[in-house]
Write a structure and sequence with these properties.
By secondary structure, the protein is mainly alpha-helical. Helices cover 38% and strands 3% of the residues. A two-stranded parallel sheet has the order 1-2. Helix 2 (20-29) runs parallel beside helix 3 (45-54).
Length: 257
C-alpha cells in the first residue's frame, strides 16, 4: 500500500487503513487517499493537514470538525477557490463574499454537503493570495441543481467537483467525452470500473476467446462492482456500435445501460 497508488488504500484491510504512519505516507503522495482512511484518521488534524497541503480536494474527506478549522480551509483556498464549498457554514459566511455566501447557505439547506457550483472570489482580507486559486475563481458556474436532466458543457478541471455535486443530489452522471482523451486518463486514475466495448467485441466475435455468455457475466459483474463499491462505471465505446441487448438477458435487462 505504501508504495502503490494511493487508491490501493481503498482495498487495504481495516487495520491498515487505521495505521496512522501508513496513511500519512499515502496522503503525502496523494491527498485524495484521505477518503480511504479510517474515520478516526480523517479527524486527525495532522493527517488532514498533510493531505490538504498535497491536494486541496482532500478537504471533502475531512471530519466535520476539521472543516471548521480556519487554517485548514485557508490552506485549501490558497490552492483553489472551490474549496469553500467544503467549509462549515460559519466559515463560508466569513470567507465568501456576502451574496455568494447567502446563495451557498440556501443551496445547502436540505442537501447534505451540496454546494451551489460557484467559485468564490474571496475578499482581500481572507486567506486567498492575490492572483491565487482556481483560474476560474470569481466566475460563476452553472448551478447543477438548475440543470438536472439537461446537457452541460464543463471544463475538465471541474469534472471531479461536478461528480461530487451530483452524488450529493443523488443523481447519476452520464459523461460524453469523445473529443477529450484526458477524461479517460482521469477515470483510469479514479479506480473506476471499466467496460471496454471494443475489446469485448473483439474477444467474442473475432478471436473467439470467450462466449457471449461469458461476456454477459463479465458485464453483469462490472455493473454490480460499480454499484456495490460506489464506483464510476467507465464505458469505453471507442468507435464501436455496441449492441447492449445482445449481451443482456431476463435477469440482466438492457435498461441497465
Amino acid at each position: 500500500v505504501a508504495t502503490a497508488s494511493c487508491s490501493a488504500l481503498q482495498f487495504a484491510a481495516e487495520n491498515l487503513r487505521s495505521d496512522r504512519d501508513l496513511v500519512l505516507h499515502a496522503v503525502e503522495r496523494n491527498g485524495r487517499a484521505l477518503q480511504y482512511a479510517a474515520a478516526a484518521l480523517r479527524g486527525d488534524r495532522d493527517v488532514v493537514a498533510t493531505a490538504v497541503r498535497q491536494n486541496w480536494a482532500a478537504l471533502r474527506s475531512a471530519s466535520q470538525e476539521l472543516r471548521g478549522d480556519r487554517e485548514l480551509i485557508c490552506e485549501a483556498l490558497r490552492q483553489d477557490g472551490r474549496a469553500i464549498r467544503y467549509a462549515t457554514e460559519a466559515l463560508q459566511q466569513e470567507l465568501a463574499p456576502p451574496a455568494a455566501a447567502t446563495n451557498l447557505s440556501r443551496a445547502s439547506q436540505g442537501r447534505r454537503g451540496v454546494g451551489t457550483g460557484f467559485l468564490p472570489h474571496l475578499p482581500r482580507r481572507s486567506c486567498m493570495p492575490s492572483g491565487g486559486g482556481s483560474p476560474t475563481a470569481g466566475k460563476s458556474m452553472n448551478r447543477l441543481e438548475d440543470n438536472i436532466g439537461k446537457p452541460m458543457v464543463i471544463p475538465l478541471v471541474d469534472l471531479d467537483v461536478r461528480i461530487e455535486e451530483a452524488k450529493g443530489l443523488r443523481r447519476a452522471v452520464l459523461i460524453l467525452a469523445g473529443s477529450c482523451p484526458d477524461v479517460e486518463t482521469y477515470f483510469s486514475y479514479d479506480m473506476s470500473v471499466c467496460i471496454d466495448c471494443k475489446q469485448l467485441l473483439s474477444e467474442v466475435f473475432i478471436h473467439r476467446a470467450k462466449t457471449v455468455q461469458q461476456a454477459r457475466a463479465e458485464l453483469r459483474a462490472a455493473v454490480l462492482e460499480a454499484l456495490s463499491l460506489n464506483k464510476s462505471l467507465h464505458v469505453r465505446m471507442a468507435d464501436t456500435a455496441f449492441d447492449w441487448a445482445n449481451f443482456c438477458s431476463d435477469d440482466f435487462p438492457p435498461e441497465v445501460f
